[in-house]
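Q: A reviewer asked whether we had any structural model of the full assembly, not just the individual parts. We don't, so I'm hoping you can provide one. Inputs are below.
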Amino acid sequence: MLEIVIPIALALVAAAIAMSFWRLLRGPSVPDRVLALDTLYVNTIALLVLFGIHLGSALFFEAALLIALMGFIGTVALSKYLLRGDIIE
Amino acid sequence: MLDYFLSFLILTGAIFTFIGSLGLVRLKDFYTRLHGPTKATTLGVGSLLIASVIFFSTRGTGVSLHELLITLFLFITAPVSAHMLAKAALHLNLDSLAKMPVEKAPEEKVKKVKKEVEEKTDEIQTDEKAAHVSSEEPAKESTPQNSNEKLADS
Amino acid sequence: MTRLLPHPILTPALAGVWLLMNSTIEPGHILLGLLLGWMIPILTIRFWPETVRIHKPWVLLRYISVLLFDIVMANFTVARLILGNPDRLKPAFARLPLDLTSDLAISLLANSITLTPGTLSAKLSEDRKFLIVHALNETDPEAMVATIKKRYERPLKEVFETC
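A: Here is a predicted structure for the entire assembly that you could use as a starting point for your response.
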């Protein structure tokens, strides 16, 4: 059962990444692009976790945690830049 | 049995992740687009991570709960980044399908924003006080945008 | 007491996160986690000016379960709206007058609003009296504001602020 489900799930998440990437390239405004980057990192966590289950290896957890931390900081820094024109005051 | 439950969780997670990004493509303005990723993605990634907890805990190598940490972290941070992005978008006066809650001061706008504003002039209320307040705000020189973020309080 | 243990809730929380991260319950790790949970609040006391007091833990637990249920329902609602016709959506901004005053309670309310059905907290007014809320599909913003106040704001006020 898992052997069938995991490739399907991987394909769905890959499609999600492709769509976020489309919004990143297309995005009419800067906040749209930042939002696309935000979605991209969350999707990447999903992809890594799925891949970890697929390979049966828990090694990907640290990578996913790091992406979660860095992605959040990146989004906040970019929004702060849009808001103030500066990151550190 | 466990296999089916795991498959169910993984499929739900993947479908919700997919729908979140689909919202990013399909919806029409920035504020509605913001809803897709912040909601669908948290539950999507959440159920994938719970599937991962169950999968690694039932393999005999002991309980593995550290995926819960990512879930917790995402549930705390996703609303914060959404709030920051919405605030930035309101500050930049992005086009919205809904009526904007922000009082506007047309004199302060750069050319591009000016054009957008002229399309919905009926919503604009010129207010001497608002113009005065926004000229005091320090943030406006570095980014070319309208810096009036005074709320429509009066 | 307050200087040695400035945040009594933060210490066990940090120790719990440490144990989760190592996914173990060995005595050595418990001790190390408690030590870290004790030292980090002392070293970072300048960043935490507000002391947190939970008045009614049971109300908080009920609030969290209501919130989790709402989050799951919110996902189905938003998924249906995204898959439906996007032209038929009626997004709206609404102003939510706040009764809460403490920073923590306001940010928890804003987070809850963002996590639940089709609503998103967009901005806190400078005088901290209003929260701007964006709804994905709402024809009656007044009713939505009333629901939020009743369902989320009242329990938060009970838990974090004495009445």
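A: Points you may want to mention in the reply: Chain C is about 55% helix and 10% strand. Chain C touches chain B at residues 17, 20-23, 71-72, 74-75, 78-79, 81-83, 86-87, 89, 91-93, 95, 110-111, 113-115, 118, 120-123, 125-127, 130, 132, 134, 136 (CB under 8 Å).
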